[in-house]
What does this fold into?
Amino acid sequence: GGKNFVILLATNLGGGVMEWKGPREWAIERNSVANKQHYATNWGYELELVDMSTKKRYAHEWRESWEKVDSIRAAMHKYPQAEWYVY
It folds into this structure.
């Protein structure tokens, strides 16, 4: 375990992709993040939250998909000792 395993979680803390989040969506996101944090802590994993709302490198409508590649690359540099698997 330990920091050899990293879970990347892309979030959009500034609002929704197509519309702004309401109270229900914010509650769901908070519970989801807390659940993943609990899981990571329980198994000794590192949870890396990536705020996709601040990324504006790609201007087209599918930018979130391409920005994930940048986020994975950044995490690989931040956690060089981690083992990387693609599922």
Q: What stands out?
A: The radius of gyration is 14 Å. Residues 76 and 82 are 8 Å apart (CA to CA).
